[in-house]
Amino acid sequence: MSRYFTEDHEWIEVEGQTGTVGISDYAQGQLGDIVFVEAPDSGRSLGKGDEAAVVESVKAASDVYAPVSGTVTEGNPALADEPSLVNSDPEGEGWFFKLTLSDPSELESLMDETAYAAFVAKL
Amino acid sequence: MTINQSGWKPTAPAGRGDAAGTTFTGNKALMLEEPLIFEIGDDQTTGVDFILPARGEGDRRPQAGGGGGSPHGAASAEAPLHHPAAPGGAAPRAGEDRLGGLARTASIGLPGLSEPETVRHYTRLSRQNYAIDLGLFPLGSCTMKHNPRLNEKVARLPGFADVHPLQPVDTVQGALAVINELAVWLIKLTGMYGVAMSPKAGAHGELCGILCIKAALEKRGEGHRKVVLVPESAHGTNPATAAFAGFTVEDIPATVDGRVDLAALRARLGPDIAAVMITNPNTCGLFERDLKAISDAVHAAGGYVYCDGANFNAIVGKVRPGDLGVDAMHINLHKTFSTPHGGGGPGSGPVVLSEALAPFGPLPFTARMADGHIALIEEETAGDDHPDTFGRMTAFHGQMGMFTRALTYILSHGADGLQQVAEDAVLNANYVLRRLEDTLDAPFAGSGPCMHEAIFSDRGLAPGFSTIDIAKALIDEGYHPMTMYFPLVVHGAMLVEPTETESKAALDQFIGALRSVAERAKAGDAALKTAPHFAPRARLDETLAARKPVLVWKPPVAEAQAAE
Question: How far is B36 from chain A (nearest CA, A)?
């Protein structure tokens, strides 16, 4: 089980063929209070970099991109009533959606936790 | 995901700022609390008394209180229908239902208020407003300046105020002459070839200009040019307009001194570029010195140059955009030419066009004939003279009420006066910039004089303090805050545009207030986090408002059930 990050501040945790996607703690801190999340429906097929979800804070609505290609198996149902989970536990309970990876080799282009921390430190 | 890096991050307020003491009424002396009209009145009363009609035979309507909603409300709405006796015929019986059974059976839910209650309600609300007639309005990029009362007087002359757009043109020669005269002035002031007067506001004007460009490209058989380049500091309407018209938008990078990066722009130009959209003076308050070079490069690559003229007030009478190679530029009459702005009146965004684009401009437009008669060129009369028009932006001629005001402003200032408008606007903005650059970080202070607006950042504030705390505290100081967190290229941006209509004394007081508030933010004064303290409402909980928005008033539950 390992976790990867994109330069657009999504994370993906991979277990076998299944990936869980969310936004990083840094991203939620920049966005401020999250007021709405639109997670993708299961069955949707996503290419790497496709707009997968929408996260809305008081200041702006932002697109969340798919870190890798795959088919969505589940959106996080808890976020509909409690979008603040993205603030309180962005890299845990505040996950956005799960997907089945179609090309695990795409993970190689992503950053690991250490590399992402270094990336954020430079912003 | 994309993260807007402006630094704006609204949250719930940290605590409630308790002003000293509370009153029984909630009023604070002259600052009067005011509930909603639904909370003042109810739908069981009416401000006007009507005599209930006597009920005739066969009237099957439900009796008052018999499940049919409000008796008074129903009476007030229906009674007038029954009063007049039908001339020459049988008088309808009082109370007779002549609505074919379609009369409503429930209350329409409007509260009945007496005239004084109504007058007080709206007067009280109006006193909670801030207006250009009350004080300085430093909103950068919005150009909130004085609306001369002479404009209002002229706009109300019956010959202008009481005409209809469908009147025969021979009966409205004066009004058409105003449109034509203003058009001539706008063309002259901008050094352009033609003008489309009908767009209703700046963004509408942008669309007009971009549609002209689209039509021109298609005429050339180059409809495949699909990319419009827009700088990062542009007004949000620029990329939105280009996208709306079917183009793809790409960013033009900026240099460190806040201007368009000419080398990067040149490198991007190619056969897929339809146009560039550049704001000059730009949103960082700087004049784009390279605009002529930019235009030449864009034209050489086969594209067109759209200029966002929102900030034309800084250069009117001094610079003619036509000389800089601009192909289309909208002029916000409600900014540069002092017509009401921001709830006070409709916008108006005429678009001046270069010789290359003028043939594609929209209908209708006015034309002064050799004999002095002013014709209105429309679809029926355009004939072969204007075959390439892209069509119509709007039903009629444009914002007539704004044309009269703008032309009044222009004629009352004259050419030299308009020149002074630009000079004074720039002088005032530079005065604000130089008086405050030692207190607030001014990222482009080193780029030379600013134009119509001064920009500051939130650098140097105490940890945890942001631009919003300064803005909220300025409300307590009696000012509408400046534009904040825009443009996005400056972190925690504060964009101040004083305009030419403020005196030195007014500027000094504003500078004193902003300096005082900024010093408190740098020192970490906790009271700033709950400001405003003296406004009708304290710091709002923007998070709760967004998570659980209350968009309409709903009757209390018990009453709603009773009405069923």
Answer: 26
Note whether B1 contacts A23, CB cutoff 8 Å: yes
Q: Which of B2, B4, B547 sits opposite A59 (nearest CB)?
A: B4
Q: CA B80 → CA B76, B93, B255, distances in Å? A: 7, 13, 70
If you classify domain A2-101 with CATH, what class do you get? mainly beta
Which residues does chain B have with pLDDT short of 70? 14-21, 47, 54-96, 343-344, 558-564
pLDDT at B175: 96
Q: Could B2 and A8 be called an inter-chain contact, meaning their C-beta atoms sit closer than 8 Å?
A: yes
For residue B63, what pLDDT is reported? 45
Query: Would you call A33 and B3 a contact, using CB atoms and an 8 Å cutoff?
Result: no
Task: Tell me what pLDDT residue B62 has.
Answer: 46
pLDDT at B69: 40
* Domains of chain B, first to last: 149-408 (3.40.640.10), 422-547 (3.90.1150.10)
**Residue A83: is it exposed, middle or buried by C-beta count within 10 angstroms (0-12/13-18/19+)?**
buried
Q: How far apart are CA B57 and CA B80, in angstroms?
A: 19
CB-CB: which of B5, B6, B546 is closest to A58? B546
- Residue B8 contacts A, CB cutoff 8 Å: yes
Nearest chain A CA: its distance from B541 CA (Å):
10
H or E stretch including A4? strand A2-5
pLDDT of amino acid B177: 96
Work out whether the CA dihedral A93, A96, A101, A106 comes out positive or negative: negative
- Quickly count: other Cβ atoms within 10 Å of residue B256's Cβ: 10
A64 vs chain B: nearest CA distance in angstroms? Answer: 4
| Closest B-chain CA to A24 | B1
CA distance linking residue B83 with residue B93, whole number of Å: 9
Domain assignments of chain A as residue spans, ordered by start: 2-101
B464 touches chain A (CB under 8 A): no
Closest CA to A79 of A37, A20, A42, A19: A37
Q: Are A90 and A13 in contact (CB under 8 A)?
A: no
Name the residue among A82, A10, A18 with its Cα closest to residue A53: A10
Which residue type occupies B162?
A: D
Closest CA in chain B for residue A67: B1
What ipTM describes this predicted complex?
A: 0.75
> Which residues from A are below 8 Å from B when comparing CB atoms?
8-10, 23, 27, 30-33, 35-36, 55-60, 62-65, 83-84
User: Which 8-state DSSP code applies to residue B553?
Assistant: -
Render pLDDT for A49-88 as a digit per residue (tens, 0 to 9): 999 999 999 878 899 999 999 999 999 999 999 999 999 9
What is the C-alpha to C-alpha distance for residues B150 and B410, in angstroms, rounded to an integer?
Answer: 11
- Report the alpha-carbon distance of residue A87 to residue B26 in Å, rounded: 36
Please tell me the predicted confidence (pLDDT) of residue B73.
41
CA B272, CA B293: separation in Å to the nearest integer?
20
Q: Which residue has the tokens 């720039």?
A: B426
Q: Yes or no: say if B497 and B428 are a contact pair by the CB < 8 Å rule.
A: no
Give the predicted TM-score (pTM) of the model.
Answer: 0.84
Cβ A10–B5 below 8 Å, yes or no? no
What residues of A are in contact with residue B236 (Cβ under 8 Å)? none
Contact B1 A64 (CB under 8 A): yes
Chain centroid to Cα B550, Å, comes to 25
